[in-house]
Amino acid sequence: MSDDPQTRRQIEAIANDHRPLLVLDVDEVVLEFLGPFMRWLQSEGYTFRPLTFALNGNIFDAKGEVASKTEVEALVTRFFDIQHEWQVLADGFPEALEPLADSAQIVLLTAMPHQHFEAREALLTSLSVLYPLVTTEKAKGPAVALLHGGRDAPVAFIDDMAYNLISVAKSLPDATLIHLMAHRQMRELMPPLPQGIVAASDWSSAAEAARKALGL
Ligand SMILES: [Mg+2]
User: Fold this and answer.
1) Which residues pair with 210 in a beta bridge?
2) Residue 76: which domain range?
3) Residue-wise pLDDT tens digits, 77-104
4) How far is it, in rounded angstroms, from Cα 168 to Cα 25?
5) What is the 149 CA–ligand 1 centroid distance (Å)?
6) How does pLDDT run across 111-126, given as a tens digit for each residue?
7) How far does residue 67's CA lie from ligand 1's centre (Å)?
8) How many domains would you assign to the chain?
9) Distance (Å, rounded) from C-alpha 216 to C-alpha 144?
10) FRET partner for 181 with CA separation of 20 to 30 A, picked from 32, 89, 111, 173?
11) What's the CA-to-centroid distance between 18 and ligand 1, angstroms?
12) Are residues 112 and 27 located together in one domain of the fold?
């Protein structure tokens, strides 16, 4: 049961489905986030230097001062307001998913304030990504469990953040967890993934891992 009431309402509005379930994160999975965010920062006079696997500490203002945590949060919020002008589909998506689209239920689960739902949905629609979208401000695990609804069919989840994959493992121990991250330079800075997570280097290997996990 998701502890985010708005997430719960969004999930309840999605038609019941008994097919295997595939849940996809959006930023860095369906859409490029880091590349466009870095380019936008530059247009605003900031520089992103990928020194560590984080946003905080890696963004510098025009004077070369590191942006504070509050400033970084404000920049991300501003970016999500104009995301449609910058974000693009991740390489290899959606053609990698096409073979699964009829035999699995595919849902997009994005961890962002609900206020950005409309902008994100409009962006995805403009890119012909028409899978149902769910936003959450809480952990992803309970949301994926609610989407699965105890159906007698497997579930796979693809995300670029280990903490989201771990959250789903806690709520749904049988879920297949697949790591995918569009931005290669940042992915190289990522700490090793916890055991039990499938590391996919690109969309075609992620889709293949999902296909196997879902028995399709
Ligand atoms: Mg992401």
Assistant:
1) none
2) 34-85
3) 999 989 999 999 999 999 999 999 999 9
4) 12
5) 23
6) 999 999 999 999 999 9
7) 22
8) 2
9) 20
10) 173
11) 26
12) yes
